[in-house]
Amino acid sequence: MGCNTSKDAFPRRPVTGVGGTERMISRAKRVNDKKTSDSSRSTRSLGSKGSRKEVQEPPKDPPKIDESGHLLPEEVVKRSTSSITSKRLTLGTPEHPILVEYAHWTQRGFYPDDPHKENQDEFSITAQFAGRESDAMFAVFDGHGKKGHDCARFVKKKLPGTVAKEIRQARVNKYKAALKEENISLKGAKLFDPPQWPTLNADEYKTCCTKAFLETNKNLHKSEVEDNISGTTAITVSFHETLMTVCNVGDSRAVLGHQVDFQVNGHRTSRGPEESKEEIGTEEKKDGNGDRKVFPKPGSLLAIPLSRDQTPYRKDERERVKLKGAAIMSIDQIEGREEMHENWGDMVLGEDVDIHGDPPRVWVQGKDYPGTAFTRSIGDSMAESIGVTAEPEILARTLTSNDHLLVIASDGIFEFLTNQEVIDICVKCETPIIACEKLVKEAYNKWLLYENRTDDITVIVCFLTVAMKPDGQEGTTEDLVKLAQSMYGNKPVRKTRGAHDNLSSTAGPGTGAGSNSPGGQKANILNELDFSISKNPGKKAEPDPAIQ
After folding, report:
1. What does residue 77 show for φ and ψ, rounded to 5 degrees?
2. Among residues 319, 293, 263, which one has the least CA distance to residue 434?
3. pLDDT tens by residue, 324-343
4. Distance CA 150, CA 544 (A)
5. Nearest Cα to 400, choosing from 296, 274, 541, 298?
6. Strand 284-287 to 290-293 pairing
7. How far is CA 467 from CA 181, 195, 295, 332, 336, in A?
8. In this predicted model, what pLDDT tens digit does every residue of 405-457 receive, in sequence order?
9. What are phi and psi of 411, to 5 degrees?
10. Model pTM score
11. I need a labelling partner for 378 at 20 to 30 A (CA). Which of 13, 96, 225, 525 fits?
């Protein structure tokens, strides 16, 4: 379809795309193209809302940089916001509690050609979610486009409340139906009695989330935020009793650190044959600095993806938008520097890092817009007609005592770190706030290794202590590895910026061109996981009063 269109059908002016960490088309003309793009966008209004005028802000002092063009340490610190310490929530049920120790960190990116660009990442943590003390929602939003920061802020403000509204309404409706079955008149019944409202099953919860995402998208279109060619990703992780529900739109991610099951004398066990009889992961080691999470033995935590990046690299997503009339091309193809092809494979990022910097994008047939590097988004009203939707992909499952880590982050973390590398870094840390700091630092350094800039980086790290044991069917290692294998494809390894840098020396287990079979990387990871637990004591986690 779109990829077979003659390249002569497109104008020969610089083209910009949206998303994919907003890379410009030509690295050699990066600065000039950026200036041209900003100038054209400011004078060309694509259905702008209202008659608002752009406010001319006074010039700002440029950030301090070193001889290499990198931010000085004090400038990096100025762009960081994080938890002061780790916090705690007790979720789940009295019979099956889930202790969540969590922290967050966000780092504003640095673009040399746009040094004052706002942080377009947002996050939210909502305790007592939808009126239930033992429920919660964690979310990360990554804006893109000229007004991406406004889109992300709008969705951060509106989405959690909209999901909560749908959940409360569904529980009330379920309560009414139960009263009718018992022949109890609704006229005399006390309907506003939240403790009596029944909880929702997985399908009911998914329906509420889908409605809320689509409603939030419609409300964004109706708002004063200009979302024609701007929008945001949204990754949410909600806890409802023992059910965990992950909703994803875009390419932010949620990853679970799951303890590998071992086989001992033909029987499955959560610990290795050399382990003691003490239960791993459910106890907490106490020292002079208070309680802290004790992870399983080194080498036994497997990174399980709970979401899939929704990009044209995925064959199913590519075909879905093409049915809506979209053309799939990279910017090099649309500008005639690369021949037309559809050899994008069936890739899902996470196991290998992106090497191209010029990903396949979604375009209107015969036009040079919108050029989104994703196939789902909240906002991006121009792209809706060609299949870019706000409908989330949803995964719901019950956590078990084999689940120890949860990481929710924007693609600033995952652009150059695999899921497994992220889990390996976290498991060495004493507290979630230390894990956040190490992840952000590692991701920041990787950005400077591969690029002359850094993207916005946002992460929420949760240490989990779950009482429920695996039931032998759902939540076992075999069950989750099958899920993980279904989400991975192959992608070559990206070259570093330095002439003598070698990515193979920095890549984690399972990365590299040698991983050639879908899911094959996972089998390697099971054998190659190897890390040690940090010996530095961490601070005691504190309850988080009225988070949001």
Report:
1. -60, -40
2. 293
3. 999 999 999 988 888 888 88
4. 27
5. 296
6. antiparallel
7. 34, 23, 14, 52, 58
8. 999 999 999 999 999 999 999 999 999 999 999 999 999 999 999 998 999 99
9. -70, -5
10. 0.77
11. 13
Longest dimension (CA), the chain: 78
- For residue 437, CA distances in Å to 232, 253, 433, 459, 476 come to 24, 18, 6, 9, 31
pLDDT reading at 514 higher than 80: no
Is 185 exposed, middle or buried (CB count within 10 Å of its CB: 0-12, 13-18, 19+)?
A: exposed
3-state secondary structure (DSSP) of residue 115 = coil
pLDDT band, very low/low/confident/very high, at 260 (cuts 50, 70, 90): confident
Residues 169 and 192: their CA atoms lie apart, in Å, by 11
Q: Are 422 and 411 in contact (CB under 8 A)?
A: no
Please choose, from the candidates 410, 357, 367, 441, the residue with its C-alpha nearest in 3D space to the C-alpha of residue 22. Answer: 357
Map residue 172 onto helix, strand or coil: helix
Residue 534 has pLDDT above 90, yes or no: no
3 state DSSP class of 418: coil
The pair of structure tokens assigned to 42 is 């400011």
Q: Residue 89: CA atoms inside 13 Å, Cβ hemisphere, count? A: 27
Say how far apart CA 182 and CA 196 lie, in whole Å. 15
- Kind of pairing, strands 361-364 and 326-329? antiparallel
Supply the pLDDT for residue 440.
97
Whether the per-residue pLDDT at 8 is higher than 50: the answer is no
- Taking a C-beta distance cutoff of 8 angstroms, is the pair 327, 364 a contact? yes
Cα–Cα dist 40/367, whole Å = 16
Side-chain-side CA neighbours of 488 within 13 Å: the count stands at: 29
- Structure tokens that stand for 206 in this block: 């998914």
Tokens of 342: 């559809």
